[in-house]
Design goal:
mainly alpha, Growth Hormone, Chain: A, 20 helices, 0% strand, globular, MFS, Proline/betaine transporter, MFS_trans_sf, coiled coil
């Protein structure tokens, strides 16, 4: 297939590849619908599950409820990473979908703070932690599965589709949140129905994913090793332990970590920080904030679809650097414009620009994955990503409360600038490796 025929690339995939793309994409959609439903209804649900406080403390509670999904992600990354590397990618995507379904059922039936007090706050936080662990492992498993089941250049749009469907799940969640926070609905009961629907669909997705076959690269490499060991009368368990101890280069790990730090402050700015500004400075209601975020998510989704298309005809590293430049070019005027206008429509414009040009690892993730050993790939990339997101989201969420208190709207750059520098240097490092075709010895 020649570059430029991307509209037909899906039909050049094998039956198993098409089935994998379908099941994994739909599963990712469901995972992110369930995960983001709370995030984008937080303006309502935080009032139901946490005590009422002053505006500054409310901002801290918003930061805490958002960051709670990342608290145990590093721990979850080690658990699911081990399962993914030792048992297989398929097991992870099935297990995490089931976890998401169960947590949604608990949230849907949980009494509010007014009914059971602080117990409600702790239970909802625990459910958010479980959802965060499940979502990060599910997406990683899906991306690795497709990475190891395909080759460039088709590989890039295939893996990017996972992010596209996560954005679609986010848009659906915001759309449902907008509907259920409308005054014409009973706020106390309608959101519960949304979580129950998400749980039911996730259960169906769990069953459907059992028909997946194991990822080709992972399965082939494992089977090949088993055959060689059998010929040489060596036990698989002995050698498997040796392979499970393979380590990645420190520079590669640091570079990947810094790249994973990029998206959290951008996401937080788009959906959480700007929502807080709209409520605090422009008097928006919860329904108005969520409705505006829905249209931003649609722009985000369209931008990801364009990236998936472009990744087949333009090298992913060129796309990453272009997004980086465009993001900062569009964001530099944000503090100036917002300080000198009372028009909330400018917030929407900056949200959309940030969503379109957000700098992160998409669509180059398959390139990054290949620099990690196959039998440690899930653990390494999951753990590094989880730690990066935990650290960056906490710094961003709580840091912005204080940096904006002292520096106003310019406070966002206290976080964005160092994260951006780390991202750019790290992408350049991987680009140098690609140009030199310098794969680690265990990947050659």
């Amino acid at each position: 297939m020649k570059p430029g025929n991307i509209k037909n690339y899906f039909f050049y995939l094998t039956k198993d590849q098409r089935e994998a793309v379908g099941l994994l994409s739909i599963g990712t959609f469901l995972e992110y619908f369930d995960l983001m439903l709370y995030v984008h209804m937080a303006v309502l649900l935080n009032e139901l599950f946490f005590p009422k406080t002053d505006p500054f403390t409310a901002s801290l509670i918003t930061a805490f409820s958002f960051c709670s999904t990342y608290l145990l992600r590093p721990f979850g990354a080690l658990i699911f990473g081990y399962i993914g590397d030792y048992i297989g990618r398929k097991a992870v995507v099935i297990l995490t979908t089931l976890m998401m379904a169960v947590s949604c059922i608990i949230v849907a039936s949980l009494p509010t703070y007014a009914q059971i007090g602080i117990t409600a706050s702790w239970i909802i936080t625990l459910c958010r932690v479980v959802q965060g662990m499940a979502a990060t492992a599910e997406v990683r498993g899906a991306e690795l599965y497709l990475t190891e089941s395909s080759k460039p250049p088709v590989q890039y749009p295939m893996v990017a589709l996972i992010t596209v469907f996560s954005a679609l799940g986010t848009s659906a969640a915001i759309g449902v949140a907008a509907i259920f926070t409308n005054n014409t609905f009973n706020e106390i009961t309608s959101w519960r129905a949304a979580f129950l629907v998400g749980a039911g669909i996730a259960l169906v997705g769990t069953i459907a994913r059992t028909s997946l076959k194991e990822a080709d690269e992972f399965a082939n490499k494992r089977n090949k090793l088993k055959e060689q060991l059998k010929e040489n009368k060596v036990a698989w368990s002995d050698l498997n332990e040796e392979f499970m101890k393979q380590k990645s280069s420190y520079l590669i790990s640091i570079a990947y970590f810094l790249i994973q730090c990029a998206r959290p402050p951008c996401f937080y700015f788009i959906y959480i920080y700007c929502s807080d500004v709209l409520k605090r400075d422009f008097g928006y209601t919860a329904h108005e904030v969520i409705s505006q975020n829905f249209w931003v998510s649609v722009i985000d989704l369209l931008g990801l679809l364009l990236l998936a298309y472009l990744s087949y005809i333009i090298h992913p590293f060129k796309i990453l650097k272009a997004k980086f430049y465009l993001f900062f070019a569009s964001m530099l005027s944000f503090p100036v414009v917002i300080n000198y206008t009372q028009d909330a429509s400018y917030i929407l414009i900056f949200q959309c620009l940030a969503a379109l040009f957000v700098f992160d690892h998409i669509p180059a993730s398959p390139i990054f994955y290949k620099y990690f050993p196959v039998f440690r790939r899930f653990t390494y990339t999951s753990f590094l990503s989880a730690v990066a997101k935990l650290a960056t989201y906490f710094i961003t969420a709580f840091g912005l409360v204080y940096t904006t208190e002292y520096f106003g709207y310019w406070g966002i750059f206290v976080i964005l600038v160092p994260v951006g520098i780390g991202f750019f240097v790290s992408v350049s490092y991987f680009q140098k490796l690609e140009n030199q075709q310098t794969l680690p010895a265990y990947q050659e």
